[in-house]
Design brief:
This protein is an alpha/beta fold. Helices cover 38% and strands 21% of the residues. The strands form 3 sheets. It has an 11-stranded mixed sheet, with helices on both faces. It has a 4-stranded mixed sheet with strand order 2-1-5-4. β13 and β14 form a beta hairpin. α1 crosses α7, α10 packs across α11 and α13 packs across α14. The longest helix has 25 residues. The N and C termini lie far apart (58 Å).
Length: 519
């Protein structure tokens, strides 16, 4: 087995060298767009927007942008994708769509049905292989490449709709794992088919000592719950007493920093943390080198990207994109600016606003960080507070107060004739709410000048509720969003926030009644 590991690592080194082609980001993106237009030129969408004429033009990107409007989910679904859901072929991509990924982005919105074509499944597999190649840069021993890989995602037991299947993208991909990876894949085919999250975790906990896991892939909150369950059940101090070779954690879906302290308590030795950005629409980027937390965009793998500056000129107060905004190709972006991301993909999404915002940290390397969501930020009085600001403030509060903040959500509320931000924080150990509010407020004022200005004017002090972390997961479960790729919304709009507050009050009252009965 050590010999096999060495062979695999040498293969990774060779693969990494082959990946280093002297192609600029804009060249890679132009080639990608040209191939997408060519493949889709005979679809209904391609004929309607004259893709063959675009392909014959000198300014490919500019002509494409002038002909094809920017779409959101509603416009793509209502005009085009609904036909694919009704078994019509060649709508926005050649052939029939056999899979649709269920995605809401948060636990609060109705599930969207995003097409997943065979081209996209292959593209995600290629992108994941690129990411695997880059592990060679993280100083990982060759023996680890013969160990198990835990991929904690949605159920592979997809919903059969007759003409197509519905499920989490992670479940769709797990059902398509290449043959060479199957011997190493955990939790295995049978457990991966379990729909109920709690039942799945019980089986994983039971089987855990039988596996030799070196790599884990999954959303931080759910992976943390899995590790805690294993440690608690088997009465060990940390996960390395069960999986001594656990070395690499590939995370994504949400910002990891708020979870780092919690993970540090679950391990017996340092981990290699590798960030990735896999949206329901495709693989966007991954961390390609250990000296940065930024992620390298995958520019030559079936997705053409555009970037709209996330400003009041381009988006309204509710985060909706305005008409006739200018979208930039990767050639024209600048570092340090928030952009809303548009994607044109080999699954038939065209100039599609996925709802995420990103910022370039290194344009030459095409490296980005995810800064939030177009509809998940607070600017009730002009404070322009992003989820990235919130995550950094939470990380600061954890360090300053020596606490583990598992989950949080924020909304704007009325405070007399003014407004305030109300936070709900799942914190362990429990801490004085006012102390936590003051710490977060001070950090946010240092991070965000607009927030500082408004806090000294009309924005009132933070309102804070510190609650048990399990309430966040119970809320997810009550809405059928437990586990898989589901994420708790960091920012809630008024109506959803009212539902959340009612849930917290009812849960707290029920717990109080239970405690009184026991006493």
């Amino acid at each position: 087995m050590p010999i096999l590991g060495a062979i695999i690592k040498r293969g990774l080194t060779l693969g990494e060298k082959l990946e280093r082609q002297n192609v600029s980001p804009i060249q890679a993106q132009t080639r990608t767009l040209r191939r997408l237009l060519r493949l889709a030129s005979n679809t209904a969408f391609g004929q309607y927007y004259g893709f063959k004429d675009v392909l014959g033009s000198r300014n490919l990107i500019e002509n494409f942008q002038s002909r094809v409007p920017i779409h959101n989910y509603d416009s793509m679904h209502d005009r085009w994708w609904h036909m694919s859901l009704n078994n019509v072929e060649n709508v926005t991509w050649p052939g029939k769509v056999k899979y649709f990924a269920l995605s809401s982005g948060t636990s609060g919105a109705p599930s969207k049905q995003i097409p997943v074509t065979e081209h996209m499944i292959r593209a995600i597999r290629r992108g994941s292989t690129k990411m695997f190649f880059n592990l060679n840069r993280f100083n990982i021993g060759p023996d680890l490449f013969t160990k198990d890989i835990m991929m904690l995602g949605g159920s592979t037991n997809l919903q059969n709709q007759g003409d197509y299947f519905l499920g989490d993208l992670s479940g769709i991909n797990a059902g398509k794992i290449p043959f060479w990876l199957r011997p190493f894949y955990k939790p295995g085919v049978e457990i991966s088919r379990i729909n109920d999250w709690n039942d799945k975790i019980k089986e994983i906990v039971k089987k855990a000592p039988e596996w030799d896991v070196a790599f884990i892939v999954g959303i931080p909150g759910w992976v943390q719950l899995m590790l805690e369950s294993i440690i608690d059940h088997h009465k060990v101090k940390n996960i390395h007493e069960i999986w001594p070779n656990f070395t690499v954690y590939v995370h994504g879906g949400v910002h990891f920093e708020p979870y780092r302290r919690g993970f540090d308590k679950l391990v017996g030795k340092p981990l290699v943390y590798m960030d990735s950005y896999l949206a329901s629409e495709g693989l966007v980027s991954f961390q390609s080198r250990p000296e940065t937390r930024s992620m390298k965009m995958v520019l030559d793998n079936g997705i053409f990207f555009e970037f709209v500056p996330f400003t009041e000129d381009n988006f309204d107060a509710d985060g909706n994109i305005k008409e006739n905004v200018e979208a930039l190709s990767i050639k024209d972006v600048k570092e340090g600016i928030n952009y809303a991301l548009l994607m044109t993909t080999c699954a038939g999404a065209w100039r599609y606003l996925i709802g995420d915002t990103v910022k370039f940290t290194d344009k030459a390397r095409a490296e980005i960080i995810v800064t939030g969501r177009t509809k998940h930020y607070l600017s009730i009085v002009g404070e322009h507070l992003s989820v990235d600001n919130m995550n950094q403030a939470v990380r600061h509060a954890e360090e300053a107060l020596d606490v583990d903040i598992r989950e949080f959500t924020v909304s704007a509320v009325n405070a007399g004739k003014y407004f305030a931000h109300k936070w709900y924080v799942g914190c362990e150990p429990q801490i004085d709410a006012q102390r936590l509010a003051n710490t977060l407020d001070e950090a946010l004022q240092k991070l965000n000048d607009d927030y500082r200005i408004e806090r000294n004017a009309v924005l009132q002090p933070i309102q804070m509720e510190v609650i048990p972390s399990h309430l966040f997961y119970q809320w997810q479960e009550s809405r059928g969003k437990l586990g898989g790729q589901n994420k708790f919304p960091r920012v809630m709009k008024k109506e959803l926030f009212e539902e959340w507050e009612n849930f917290v009050r009812q849960s707290s009252a029920a717990q109080l009644r239970s405690d009184e009965i026991l006493n």
